Amino acid sequence: MNKYADLFQNVRAVKPLVHHITNYVTVNDCANVTIAVGGSPVMADEMTDALDIVSIASALVLNMGTLNERTIPVMLAAGKVANAKGIPVVFDPVGAGASKLRNETAARLSGEVVLAAVRGNISEIRFLAGLRSRTKGVDASDADIADAGEAKRAAKSLAERTGSVVAITGATDIITNGKNTVSVSNGVAMLGSLTGTGCMCSSLIGCCLGANPDRPFESVVAALLSMGIAGEIAHEKAGHLGGGSFRAALHDAMSRMNAPTLERRAKYDEA
Amino acid sequence: MNKYADLFQNVRAVKPLVHHITNYVTVNDCANVTIAVGGSPVMADEMTDALDIVSIASALVLNMGTLNERTIPVMLAAGKVANAKGIPVVFDPVGAGASKLRNETAARLSGEVVLAAVRGNISEIRFLAGLRSRTKGVDASDADIADAGEAKRAAKSLAERTGSVVAITGATDIITNGKNTVSVSNGVAMLGSLTGTGCMCSSLIGCCLGANPDRPFESVVAALLSMGIAGEIAHEKAGHLGGGSFRAALHDAMSRMNAPTLERRAKYDEA
Amino acid sequence: MNKYADLFQNVRAVKPLVHHITNYVTVNDCANVTIAVGGSPVMADEMTDALDIVSIASALVLNMGTLNERTIPVMLAAGKVANAKGIPVVFDPVGAGASKLRNETAARLSGEVVLAAVRGNISEIRFLAGLRSRTKGVDASDADIADAGEAKRAAKSLAERTGSVVAITGATDIITNGKNTVSVSNGVAMLGSLTGTGCMCSSLIGCCLGANPDRPFESVVAALLSMGIAGEIAHEKAGHLGGGSFRAALHDAMSRMNAPTLERRAKYDEA
Q: Shortest CB distance from A99 goes to which of C24, C27, C53?
């Protein structure tokens, strides 16, 4: 069994409590995907509540999708408590590059909180890495997608500088810790026509990190392999039917994902 | 026809307006299940809006899933208006036992508002009943589940003390008003691997109470029977496919639930 | 090809960024339907974020479903920025008529922001048009539905007075700009037993307007035709299964909607 399948399987054994401070658009998908792979989701974004909850969590996921002034300080404070307690923090910089508030918050969160993992689309990671980001809203721009080589180098230097595992998800996922880089080629284009597949990747990373806190790099790879493979299975079963059936089939595939499937279907390159 | 089937059927006849002040994780499922059984959901959590809306509602559902300082006073005030107007209030103490804010809010709500019904998992009800709760986030803990006998006694004394109908949902649902107790054994384990099935139970209780305000105990039983049976039907149809298909099938079953099905499939003990 | 099919098809070509300030009940459906037809959804409701995002958007959708004091000024300010930049604004007055806060907000938004289109149920549009509204929560009342003739005249005079395209959705959709009126008879009753179908119509209007800002009237018709037809297709495929399958099939149909289907199935009268 490859190491990634093994780490994924640990989620079902450990049942990590994954605390999310996340957006109200895709939060239900994040909760369901967390349960689907064996984790226990909890959403808490009020200051006192969040600080109590993060203390008993196995991982913390910070997602900027619908950022507001009330929850920004909560994200920062919960991130710092997680750091103090050795709880891994995942950051999903939704829309970084698209507004001043998102840019500043992304900068503050990555500056003030030690992030075990950062996952975004290529435009968002470009922004964090200090490259010019041509994001349009919360989706990656075509111009940015065309510059994948530059983004890969930037992700690597971002990972080196910060110590975070950095993941760019897209047609091919790039995961790097600065030293090692893995490309995951599982997945289907249809994942891009469903809202929340990026956010769900971040939740899956939270689950894998929560179950395997000492293996951050491999945990991120395991999480992204699981989503890519689930996307392929869902596409085979229901892609021809349309977006609604594809969505149900994606949740079906995630809830049935296991080590043998991950082992058999994983397509990745270690570089 | 048993009395529960009859009360459930009344929801489709009365079309109660069910006002929810609830969390942003499962709110969509709550709205859809309310419509599915014949109710009309309305979500309003701003103070002035909520006080107007509750005045025209048939029932009020207060759910602490994503508690925040803005909505806590709204829950309290709306609860008091509902009390003054004789509108039944359902309380879902999500995560009671897991944080100071949740504990204090649960205590204030149950202290200051007369609750027609309280529904939670065993850890949450233990907390309300004054037992030690070993909750982990928003899911019941295994240790608490093992102590079902003690919880049942505590639920009974909580119901006696407060006059609320108290329901513990889980593998077997316990409903008690202190004097009478019903155990519902409908349901499947897979309901626990979908977010929102607990919240939907509370919405269903709101629907049944809204249609039958003078029959609180039987209304809670009817609501929980309907969810348990819908879970079984969904599991038969789609359980083997996975979580996404099970979810769609659960909503299918709720939207087609009727008195004959409730009559035929209900499994409960009156004690 | 009829003009409406043509305008709908433009959404897939233009990929408009549709900024939503909307409720947390149906927001996920709004995001998914926007992607399904080729748009790019972005949800941003914090003041500074929203003002940046609206500046790069193709359309702005303002939806009052879960109104609160924090987001009302954001809706107003974003609406004014959109006006200044020539970005079309769609208004969905959810629950207008049901509470003082909703009534006042609806009045302020329609008074201070130039609205390209307003879409609501008959009770909501009656309220905006100055007729007595007998709304019950967020659903149209039966009494209001019975008065369709009066509502149609009121919608027309509202459109004349404000310059907005006004749409009443229901068993038959009425779209008017004061001068021209179209009735759309596509659709099925089952659309009314799913939460969010109204909100999704408003998102679709945002998509069509964003792609065809110079054709507001025809854009609204195109959007409502697409939802009505998708509802029919979903009902044919899955209506007998229940609400959950119907929902998935509706998203399937929206994601596969195209000009030939719109052309072939559209049922409307131009008056």
A: C53
